[in-house]
């Protein structure tokens, strides 16, 4: 969703602006679709075949369609909150979804990028050394550090208005690896000669809502149209990827669909899919963190409008064009927000007990006594699980892989997820 700044240097620093402000918004339906797909079709789509294996052929697709409908409904409601009190004609714009910005840390992107890079290395090892080779891979620390370094550089992009090209590129990568995964699954079904097999991995995207759509038509109508197109497209990919993966491997489906093709030929196609995942996550990370940067800048601009400390170091440390001398928050963007945030994400991803894909789960009761209903909101408004961990009804299970107690088991093997906390686990 493109935008051009008018008289203001940093429009995102202002929490509310009248409709007749000098900011020129140029976003359209299609730029909206690009940003949504870049943020929504994440690598979690590769775990849908595993989820389908747990639910079966009837409940699996129905669950995905149900959550797609709920996601679309919640997004429509959010679109109507952009202007208040009237969704179309009010002068006051609500320009950020603060809760989602505070809670979206990007840790899963860092971990998944590392796993995809390791998968490429492992695939090439099998191709060169043979399928019986051990091809043991070390930890993903190096890859996480590389991902963090790339994000530090990309975070120098001035604001969300300048990353349309990155969202389009990330969306193309999303479609690419989803298509490759679906095609490989379909090819495996043909090779098998039959369909095998007797969902919380579908993300919502309320946090992708951005304040860059032009008007008229009213922003909420444009966003609803873009959301409808994006949901139809993403749901189609979810059904294809989950369905073909389940049909190909049945009850033996792994948590990551591409892991089932480690020994497949052409091996370069699997490598290409994993490379597309990495490139998509590089762009998708920025889609979610740019609103965070804007909120931190807004707070700094409000509380420290003329910081001499920040002004004194701006010229030496800033990698982007110097902001106006009075714009202390613009300098703080590099010093306080963009670099440190990427580093914190990278470091926290390598801490013991960090979540790995589908081995973290929540239920509505203690182990063995719950009703089997996942304890999550219908849309992922609580990705850090703060509320779930403070609720007496919830239980939390996490992988032991990162603690080194799983031996040679696959980190996504459910038998590795043995640490369970129950009740009000604050912290």
From TrEMBL:
Record membrane topology: Multi-pass membrane protein
Domain CREG-like beta-barrel: start-end pairs: 323-424
Main localization, broad class: membrane
InterPro entries linked: AA_transpt_TM, CREG_beta-barrel, Split_barrel_FMN-bd
Domain of life according to the entry: Eukaryota
Key words of the record: Amino-acid transport, Auxin signaling pathway, Membrane, Symport, Transmembrane, Transmembrane helix, Transport
One example of a Gene Ontology biological process annotation: auxin-activated signaling pathway
GO molecular function annotations of the record: symporter activity
Tagged with keyword Heme: no
Membrane-crossing residue ranges in chain numbering: 29-50, 56-79, 163-187, 228-247, 267-288
Span of domain Amino acid transporter transmembrane: 25-106, 211-303
Subcellular location as annotated: Endomembrane system
A GO-annotated cellular component: endomembrane system
Keyword Metal-binding: no
Function comment: Carrier protein involved in proton-driven auxin influx. Mediates the formation of auxin gradient from developing leaves (site of auxin biosynthesis) to tips by contributing to the loading of auxin in vascular tissues and facilitating acropetal (base to tip) auxin transport within inner tissues of the root apex, and basipetal (tip to base) auxin transport within outer tissues of the root apex. May be involved in lateral roots and nodules formation.
Family: Belongs to the amino acid/polyamine transporter 2 family. Amino acid/auxin permease (AAAP) (TC 2.A.18.1) subfamily.
Protein name as catalogued: Amino acid transporter transmembrane domain-containing protein
């Amino acid at each position: 969703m493109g935008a051009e700044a008018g008289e203001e240097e940093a429009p995102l620093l202002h929490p509310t602006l009248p409709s007749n402000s000098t900011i020129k918004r140029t976003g359209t339906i299609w730029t909206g679709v690009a940003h949504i797909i870049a943020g929504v079709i994440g690598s979690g789509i590769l775990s849908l075949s595993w989820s389908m294996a747990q639910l079966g052929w009837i409940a699996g697709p129905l669950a995905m369609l149900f959550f797609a409908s709920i996601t679309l409904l919640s997004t429509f409601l959010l679109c109507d909150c952009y202007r208040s009190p009237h969704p179309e004609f009010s002068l006051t714009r609500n320009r950020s979804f603060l809760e989602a910005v505070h809670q979206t840390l990007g840790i899963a992107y860092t971990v998944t990028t590392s796993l995809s890079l390791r998968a490429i290395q492992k695939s090439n090892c099998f191709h060169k050394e043979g399928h019986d080779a051990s091809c043991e891979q070390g930890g993903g620390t190096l890859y996480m550090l590389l991902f963090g370094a790339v994000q530090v550089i990309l975070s120098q992009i001035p604001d969300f208005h300048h990353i349309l090209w990155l969202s389009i590129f990330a969306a193309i990568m999303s479609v690419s690896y989803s298509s490759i995964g679906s095609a490989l699954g379909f090819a495996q079904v043909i090779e098998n000669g039959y369909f095998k097999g007797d969902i919380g991995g579908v993300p919502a995207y309320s946090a992708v809502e951005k304040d860059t759509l032009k008007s008229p038509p009213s922003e909420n109508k444009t966003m609803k149209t873009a959301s409808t197109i994006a949901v139809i497209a993403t749901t189609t990919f979810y059904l294809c990827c989950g369905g073909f993966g389940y049909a190909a491997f049945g009850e033996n489906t792994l948590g990551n669909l591409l892991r089932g093709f480690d020994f497949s030929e052409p091996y370069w196609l699997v490598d290409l899919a994993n490379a597309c995942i990495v490139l998509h996550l590089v762009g998708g990370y920025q889609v979610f963190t740019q609103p965070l940067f804007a909120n931190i800048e807004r707070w700094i601009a409000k509380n420290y409008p003329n910081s001499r400390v920040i002004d004194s170091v701006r010229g030496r440390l800033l990698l982007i064009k110097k902001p106006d001398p009075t714009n202390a928050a613009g300098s703080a963007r590099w010093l306080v927000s963009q670099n440190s945030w990427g580093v914190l994400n990278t470091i926290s991803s390598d801490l013991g007990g960090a979540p790995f894909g589908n081995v973290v789960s929540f239920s509505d009761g203690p182990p063995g006594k719950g009703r089997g209903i996942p304890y999550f909101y219908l849309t992922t408004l609580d990705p850090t699980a703060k509320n779930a961990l403070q609720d007496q009804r919830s239980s939390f299970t996490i992988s032991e892989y990162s603690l080194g107690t799983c031996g040679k088991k696959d980190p996504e093997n459910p038998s590795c997820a043995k640490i369970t906390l129950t009740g009000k686990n604050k912290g």
